[in-house]
Design goal:
Blueprint (H helix, E strand, L loop, with lengths): L1 H35 L8 H12 L4 E3 L9 E6 L4 E6 L13 H18 L6 E6 L8 H7 L8 E3 L2 E3 L10 E10 L15 H16 L7 E8 L10 E10 L2 H22 L2 E6 L10 H13 L18 H5 L4 E2 L2 E3 L10 H6 L3 H23 L1 H13 L7
Parallel strand pairs: 3-4, 3-5, 5-11, 6-12
Antiparallel strand pairs: 1-2, 2-4, 7-9, 7-10, 8-9
This protein binds zinc ion.
Amino acid sequence: MPGTASAGLDQVHRAIDAAIADLDEPLRALSLDLHGHPELALAEHRSAGLLRDWLAGRGFRVRAPVAGLDTAFVADYGHGTPVIAYLLEYDALPGVGHGCGHNLIAAGGLGAATALRMALPEPPGTLRVIGTPGEEGAGGKIIELEAGVFDDVDAALMFHPGDRTMPIRHALASMPMTFEFHGVAAHAAGSPDQGRSALAAMIQLFVSVDALRQFLPEVSRVHGVILDGGLASNVIPDYTRASFQVRAVTSELLADHVDRVEACARAAALATGTTVDITRSHVYAERKNNHAIAYRVAQYLAELGEEVEEPVLRGGTGSSDIGNVSLRLPAIHPYLKIMERGTPSHSHVMAQAAAGLDAHRATLRMAAALAKAGADLFGDGALLEAARQEFAVSGPDLPE
Ligand SMILES: [Zn+2]
């Protein structure tokens, strides 16, 4: 009897709104606590501890560490299938703290799971929270995927703060890479002929990448910083190190770009009489948004007064390890406006916005919308079935 089911769901949705109102202050305190103590990828010990304590104190069975990562965790409430998971991120960035607003991702995901647990004290399945550390470069979700953490998950829900609210967006496939050049140290004035400069090689790498860039597709990206550039101007540097990211619209195209960037590094070593060590990290995959779930969340956001914009699938954008999850199971990663349109992410301005009251209020709306979609996935077989069918036939969202 669909009428009865939806009447029941209406009641659950109202209970979620009430629960979110009750959680307002504790979630605000938690979000500010995370924001005030930013921790870098895979070093989020304090942050992960706060989140685990919150969940354990509200009846979730917490397991940690998982996947060999000290700051990863899994928290379950209820038993059996389906398994509906909320994903939390809580790592910060060097130099700009929570300039990507992951404190809000953690607080909002926690709010959604807690409200759903309060509104559905006996869920017909497992309500799961997965702590996914190291989104910024370390690929925490990729490591968890490989360790089987997502094997029994039916749907994965999270969101990301930004400069507009959108149900979906494309993301570039990306690979973090490290280049280390080894040369020979010598006096830069007395005996330069005895030296081989690891810095000259590094400069050559950057120049070659600039030359390569004009022959890459418009949306592809290659960007790097020098982390070690030598120690003194009168010593020819025998060691330099750079961190790069290479990005493209698909993992397949990315593989081509990575090979070509590597060739630039090998050529630089050859030209300067140095050697190079190249480290390839995880591939962050392109994103396959589950539209059925994402647009259900958007509907609930709009009902709560949030202005939801149609996504624009154009141009370059960031990358995230949710992409890898999204190719394996139905997953969503909608965006939530917390700052003025056009404000760049990974900035001091975004870090400031992520501590603001407006951002917190928007996060509460997102938490409620995510919780209601979770209630539908548990209670209304139609949504989970639609999500599964879409997943079986759809591909990633790519820019025009
Ligand atoms: Zn982020």
